[in-house]
Amino acid sequence: xxxxxxxxxxxxxxxxxxxxxxxxxxxxxxxxxxxxxxxxxxxxxxxxxxxxxxxxxxxxxxxxxxxxxxxxxxxxxxxxxxxxxxxxxxxxxxxxxxxxxxxxxxxxxxxxxxxxxxxxxxxxxxxxxxxxxxxxxxxxxxxxxxxxxxxxxxxxxxxxxxxxxxxxxxxxxxxxxxxxxxxxxxxxxx
Length: 190
What we know:
With 190 residues, the chain is mainly alpha-helical. It has one domain (2-189). Helix content is 63%, strand content 6%. The strands form two sheets. The chain has a two-stranded parallel sheet with strand order 1-2. The chain has a two-stranded antiparallel ribbon with strand order 3-4. Helix 3 (32-44) packs antiparallel against helix 5, helix 5 (53-76) packs antiparallel against helix 6 and helix 6 (83-99) packs antiparallel against helix 9. It is globular, with a radius of gyration of 18 Å. Mean pLDDT is 91; it is low at 182-190.
């Protein structure tokens, strides 16, 4: 979903007369925190990591830590356009993950409706280090992966309210930087 959001944001900004080189010139600090967060999430999704017994014990803490890294990065860049949306989405996802033992709850019925019964079974077996199915015991299920993304997304997918806020934040950030109105403001306050 996020690759589509980034691509769409770039395309809209370009159509609005934005310049791509402004992204590299923008003074967004401590970007390494974002890469560290995504690296943690990437490794938690690898089947080889999931096969390690220690990984199941450490995963809830590692998964949550990725969101803390994002929050720190967004706090350090709080004057950048869209960061309030990014922080709100990150906080929403962190809240539901923390409330559910370090895993994002997912609507299993919607997974089946999307043709992802195998994924639902994988989550039901407890094999995922990062996701679990919504049950009657799930806390804050409405913050979990319960929203269905259909066209314009290339593939139907489930996402959370936090993911939606993150997508809005990415869009606002890219527009603000590439189109240029926010560039001078962020440079003066950074």
